Amino acid sequence: MPGSRSEQLDLRRQMRVLASSGQLSAGMHRRLRHLPAPDPRFLRARTLLNHVSVSVAVDETQGIKLVWSLEEAYSIIIREITAADIRWIVQSRGDNSSGWQWTPTDSKAFRESLQLTSFVPLLQSSSAQVRLAVEWRSNIIVSRTFVSQLNSKAPRPITLSSQLQIAANRYVVCWNADSREEFKVVLTSLDSKVISTVQTKASCHLFKELPTENCCRATISDANAEGSEVVVKIELAPVVSSTGVSLESKLIFTNGTALLRMANTNDFLMLADPEVLKFQPPTEKNITGGSLFSIRSI
Predict the structure, then answer these.
(1) Same domain assignment for residues 50 and 125
(2) pLDDT digits (tens, 9 = 90+) for 62-105
(3) What are phi and psi of 135, to 5 degrees?
(4) How far is CA 196 from CA 65, 186, 188, 216, in A?
(5) What residues make up the domain containing 111?
(6) Gap between the Cα atoms of 163 and 176, Å rounded
(7) Residue 80's domain is classified under what CATH number?
(8) 18, part of any domain
C-alpha cells in the first residue's frame, strides 16, 4: 500500500475512476474502503497550490525575485494550515535542466500576508521554470509549473584564454565566454583572404594544415548573434623534429583542485596512486573542466 498521503490520494482518485466505469474488481473495492482518508489539511494545502500565482523579475544583485500571491478568499484556509507544522519551498530550474533546485522560504511565510517573496539564484537560461511546494509530515505536494522569460543582462564578451602551437602546422586556440549555442571560427591569411570557416559548440579549436607563409589570423564570434568577437594572430615557429618524444597514451583528470596523471592507462582499479602535476589554479578557483589535445585532435 502506498505510504505517503499524496500517493494514497492519487491511488484513491484512480480507483474511483475505475469504479465509476465498472472496471474495479470486488477485491479492489475492499482495498479502496480500507485506504486511510486524506488529512483535511493536506487537501486544503493542495487547494491553495492550485490557486497560487507568481510574478517573476530579475534582480542582478539578489537573483530571480518571485512574488507568490493568493486571493483574499483563501485567507481562512491559509490560517488553518499555517497553524500546522508545514514548510513552504520554492523549486526552480532553467529550460536546459532536468532537476529542480530547492530554496526554503522564511518560517513566517504566508502567516502575516497573502504574499510570499522569495529569491532563487540566477540561471544561465533564457527562461525560468518555478513552482511552489508544501512539505508536511514528510509529504510533498507542488503547484503547477510556471514558465517565465528572463530579461537577463548582456552576455560576457568573448576573451582569449590560451593558445599553443603543437606542431609545425597545427595550432590550438581556446577562449572564455558565457554559455552560447555555437561559435563561429574564421581563419584568414594576413592579407584577409578566408582560409576556412567552421561552427563549433566547443570553447577550443585545433587548426590543422596551416599554411607556412602569410599565416594567419583567427576570429572567434557568436555564430547566432552580432557582437563580441576576439581576434588571434597565429605565428608559427619552426619546429625541429625529434625522435625522443613519447607517443604513448596518457590519462589526465582533475579532482577540482589539482591535475593528476595515471601512469598506467589500463589501471582501471587505480591500484597505483596518480601523479599530481605541477599546476596551481588561481587563488580561490576550482578546476571545473579541461581541454586535452594531441597533434591530431582535441
Answers:
(1) yes
(2) 889 999 998 888 888 888 777 667 888 999 998 777 789 999 88
(3) -110, 125
(4) 45, 6, 7, 11
(5) 36-149
(6) 12
(7) 2.60.40.10
(8) no
Q: pTM above 0.85?
A: no
pLDDT higher than threshold 60 for residue 7: no
What is the rounded radius of gyration, in angstroms, for the C-alpha atoms of the chain?
29
Strand partners, 221: 184, 229
Helix (H) or strand (E) holding 10: helix 5-20
- State which of 149, 171, 199 marks the end of a domain: 149
Where are the extended beta strands (E) located within 105-212? 115-120, 127-136, 139-142, 146-149, 159-167, 170-176, 183-189, 194-200, 204-207
- Of the residues 186, 207, 234, which one is the last residue of a structural domain? 234
* Domain identity same for 185 and 121: no
Which amino acid is present at 160?
A: L
Would you give the distance in Å from CA 199 to the centre of its chain? 23
Q: Within a domain: residue 87? A: yes
* Region of residue 194 (phi > 0: left; psi between -120 and 50: alpha; otherwise: beta): beta
Amino acid at site 31: R
24 lies in some domain: no
179 close to 165: Cβ distance less than 8 angstroms:
no
**Within this chain, do residues 68 and 117 fall inside the same structural domain, yes or no?**
yes
Q: Count up the domains in the chain and report the number.
A: 3
User: CA-to-CA distance for 199 and 187, rounded, in angstroms?
Assistant: 12
